[in-house]
């Protein structure tokens, strides 16, 4: 049996060989699961009542716990929202998301991304750039 990992806001346990369940400590809420073989975080399903309304003239955004985004090894985020599945990258969420001002002993610290940005559009710009070798670089 693998010992659960403990962090300050979350704790995790493996429920299968490469499938890790993530819990938020404040209310023992299941936040989702990471499939390490696919490098995908599957968030628990969300509805309109889970939307943060932090942005002017925008339908709002969804939040993911900051420690989940910063401490785990996954590339893709999938969230079942209402009647569709929203997909984006972890790096896009970290780069374009806004840290929620609403956090205390009962509410975990979350990074909010606008609903209009939760897509695979424009994700290439957030991928790490590989160092390219020049065509005529000297080989040692």
Describe this structure in words.
The relative contact order is 0.17. The chain is mostly beta strands and 140 residues long. The protein has two helices and ten strands, in the order ββββββαββαββ.
Q: H/E order of the elements? A: EEEEEEHEEHEE
Determine the structural class based on helices, strands and strand pairing: mainly beta
Nearest-integer average pLDDT: 85
**Cα radius of gyration in angstroms:** 17 Å
Distance between the termini: 47 Å
Shape: globular
Strand content range: 35-45%
Number of H/I helices: 2
- Number of strand elements: 10
Query: Largest sheet, order of strands side by side?
Result: 1-2-3-4-5-7-8
In short:
It is built from two helices and ten strands; from the N terminus they run E-E-E-E-E-E-H-E-E-H-E-E.
What are the main properties of this structure?
about 140 residues; mainly beta; three-stranded antiparallel β-sheet; 2 helices; 10 strands; about 10% helix; globular
Detail the topology: elements first, then pairings:
Blueprint: E1 5-6, E2 10-16, E3 19-24, E4 29-35, E5 40-43, E6 61-65, H1 66-71, E7 76-81, E8 84-89, H2 90-96, E9 98-99, E10 110-114
Parallel strand pairs: 5-7
Antiparallel strand pairs: 1-2, 2-3, 3-4, 4-5, 6-10, 7-8, 9-10
């Amino acid at each position: 049996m693998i010992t659960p990992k403990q962090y300050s806001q979350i704790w995790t346990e493996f429920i299968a060989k490469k499938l890790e369940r993530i819990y938020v400590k404040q209310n023992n809420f299941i936040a989702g699961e990471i499939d390490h073989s696919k490098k995908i975080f599957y968030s628990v399903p969300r509805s309109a009542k889970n939307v943060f309304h932090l942005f002017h003239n925008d339908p709002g955004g969804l939040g993911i716990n900051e420690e989940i985004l910063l401490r785990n090894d996954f590339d893709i985020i999938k969230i079942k929202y209402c009647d569709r599945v929203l997909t984006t990258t972890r790096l896009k969420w970290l780069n374009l998301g806004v840290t929620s001002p609403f956090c205390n002993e009962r509410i975990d610290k979350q990074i909010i991304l606008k609903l209009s940005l939760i897509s695979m559009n424009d994700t290439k710009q957030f991928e790490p750039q590989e160092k390219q070798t020049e065509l005529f670089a000297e080989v040692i």
